[in-house]
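Hello again, I could really use a second opinion on something today. I've been staring at a protein lately and its backbone has me curious. You're getting the sequence in one-letter code plus the fold written as tokens. I'd be grateful if you could look everything over and explain what you see. No rush at all, and the record is pasted right below:
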Amino acid sequence: MAAPSESTPAIRIQDLRTVQAVFEASDVLSEVWGGDHSGMPPNLLRALAHAGNYAVGIYDGTRMVGASVAFFGAPAARSMHSHITGILPAYRGLGIGRMVKQHQREWALARDVGRITWTFDPLVARNAHFNLRVLGARVTEYLVDHYGAMDDGVNRGDASDRLLVTWALAAPPAVTPEADRVVASVAVPADIEAIRAQSTQDAADWRVRVREAFLGHLAAGLVVGGFDDARGYLFVRPPSQGAGA
């Protein structure tokens, strides 16, 4: 794999306007997900792009190094769901993910979309940190085995539990709650991918442990108030409950 050019992170984001670009984006996403072409096949990607949804390639010079796809929600909701964003491994940790989200935000606001939703694996700590601490999105739902069995190099053999987050584009970002507001926490491993590579059973144990704790706290009326790298997900009482506590 070629290394990032010396100009990185001078990255540009461009709509997928041609069939060639669509096939290239599908190939990049397949590479990110371990060779699986079923996640975003070219024909579906072409249809989404042609229908006016968000479908972009992420370029370093002339080389596509990532892609991102989102589609509109129900008209009354004025929302857009960001379904997939993938960046080649050599380009991670360069701030490109944040650049893509800012691009999505500007694209959405220009089309009168007020919020963006997406899902992510609750066990992946770096994604929790980015989504909740950096962007200030809010967790709105825990989805058990949301996609069913997934046959790709990242998710194969694991239940596809996901957290649904909502990013209100005009609202101030959610901030990490003060210590006196935190009622409970749910820890996650620092690197679930390394655990999966070493022991599928240990990874499965983490899945069940986090799922049961999450669902238990939500059933008790708590909500996710933020994420802390040391403690994990931080649960608080909703404002109406907190006021009367």
Summary: The radius of gyration is 19 Å.
